[in-house]
Queue: 2 jobs
Job 1
Amino acid sequence: MIEASEPPRAADSDPATQAQGLRILIVDEHPSVRAAIRHAVAARDLRVVAEVGSAEAAGRAALETEPDVVLLENELDDADGHRLVRSLRKLLPHAAIVLFAMSFAEQDIVDGMRAGAAGFLELGIGAQALQRAVRGTVRGDLAMSGDWARRVVRFMTNRDGLGPTAAGGPGLTSRELEVLRLLADGLTARQIAASLGISTRTAEGHVAQILRRLGARNRAEAVRRYVEGA
C-alpha cells in the first residue's frame, strides 16, 4: 500500500499526452487493485494521471493533477468513502467522484449520494462497462446498476416507514412513490401500468411527473434526486 507520505504515482509524465482525454485519479489501498482498474479503464479517451493509496495522498494528487474523474475505494484505512467524497468535492467541484467496493450497504450509497458521489461500482465490473460509466459520469449520469437503484429506494422507503399511503419524500405523492419504486426496479411504463392496474398512458404520465418534480432526466437520476431530498 502507498503510504500517506508518498507522492502520487504519475501514470504519464508527458504533459502533451496527459492533456488528451478524460483525466482519472485512482485511490485504493491495494496496488494490485489499482493496477487492475488502471488496465480496465485504459482507452484512447481515458487517461490515468495518478494513483494513490490513502485519503491524504488523494487530496494532494487531486490538487496536483486536477482529474476529471476520481475512482475511489469506499473504505480506506484513513477515511470513509462519503467523508472523502465531501473533501474531494471541495477541492474538485467539477470532477465526478465514483466510489467502488466489493459490495455496498444501502446506507453507504445513501451517504455517498448525499455527499455528492457520481456513482457506485462493484469491483469486478468489466472493462467496457467501467469505461462507459466513467464517460457517463462526466456527462452527469449516475453510475449505478438498476439493482442498486431498486435496493436503495426500497431501503429509504422502508427505513422511513413510507407505506403505500405515505408521502414520498421531496414533493412526491403516494402514487408517485409507488411508481418510483417500480421504476427503480427497472420496470417499463407498460409493466408499471400492469403492476398497478392503471393504463400505460397514466403510468407514463406518472413517470414524467416524477422526473419533473425531481428535476431528473432519467431513472437513475430520479433515484439520486429522491435520495438527496428525502
Note: The longest strand covers residues 46-52.
Job 2
Amino acid sequence: MDPFRADLLLAALFLAEAFAELFVLVPDGTPYKGAMALIVLAHAFCLAIRRRFTIVAAILVMPLFTIGNVLDTAYVDNMISPFFVMLFVLYTVGRHLEGRVVWLLTAYAMTWMVVSTAVDSADDSLGNYLLSAIALIGGPILLGRVLRNRAELNRTLHEKAVRLEDERFEKASAAAEEERARIAGELHDVVAHALSAMVVQASGARRLAERDPARASAAFLAVETSGREALTEIRRLLGVLRREDEELALAPQPSLRHVASLLRRVEAAGLPVTLAVEGDERELPIGIDLTAYRVVQEALGGALEHGHAGHAAVSLSYADAHVDLEIADDGGAPTRPLLGIRERVVLSGGQLRAGARRDGGHVVRARLPIGGAA
C-alpha cells in the first residue's frame, strides 16, 4: 500500500478511537470538549503527514499534546490515544530523518515534554521530569534510529548479494563461452580427423573394389563408421560458439586412453593420484572420450591449484550405456567452480555434480552417455 494512503487510514482509525474516548469515556460536562475535539483533529493531521512532512508533524504534535494535558485532568485520565500519536510521530522522526535535524527535533520535543510535565496538575519530582524527557522522547526516536540503521544494513547486504550474484553469473557466462569456444575448436579437429580418415579409407576401398571385394567392403564399412561419428560430432557442434581466426591443431585429441600420462604429470606437480578402473575399457565416441578426459583434467587441476589437496583418487567405471567418472581428493572446494567443464558435460548430454564429501575433502562425479542422454 502507498505510504501516504496507509497514514491516512491510520489517521482515520485514530479519529474513531479518539472520538470514542472523548465522547464516551470523558464525563459529560467536562469543559473545553470542543477545543479537545479540535486537538484530536490536529493530531489526526499529524498522523496523516508524518512521513510526507515529518518535521512539520513533529513540530505540531508536541504543543498539541501539552495543550491537551492542561485543558483538564479528565482528558489525561480518560484519553490515551493522543499520547500514542506523540510516540508514533517521534518514532517517525528517528525512522525517516537523519543528520542534525534529528538532534534538533529531539531537543525541541524534550523541551515541550518538560513544559508539559511542569504545567500539569500532578506534583512531579525530578525523576518524573527525567523519565518524561528521556524515556518518552528519547525512547521512540532511538527505536526509529535502530530500525532505520537495520533497514539500511539489510538494503546494503541485499545490494551486495545482488551484485555478487551478477558477478557470479557473468563469470559463469564467461567461463561457459570460453569452454564452448574451446569445444568448438576441439570438435573441429575431431571432425577434420574423421573426414581425413574417410578420404584415405575411401581411396583404399576404390583401389580394392575390383581386386579384393571383401577387403573393399570392410574399408567401405570403416568409411561409414567414420562418417557416422563425424555427423554425431557435427550435431554436437551446432549452437556451440567457436573461436575465430585461430589456428587449429590437427593432432589427435586427448582421450581416456591418455589418462595415465595425465596422472603422471599431476603427480610430478606434487599431487599423488591413484587410478581405479571398473568394467571393460571400450572405445568411446570421440566427443564423449574427449569430454571425459577434460573432466578428469579440470578436477585434478582444481584439487592441485585451489583445493590444496594432499592426495586424489580417480575412478572410471564403464557400463553399457554410459561411463562414470569420480575424482575425489582430501582438499577443499576449488575457489573457481567447474563452470566451463559443466557446460561441456551438459552439451554432451551428461550429468556432473561436485561438492564436499561427508568424510572430508571434495569430490567431482560425472556420468557421460555412450548411446544417448545420461
Note: Strands lie at 273-278, 312-318, 322-329, 351-356, 362-369.
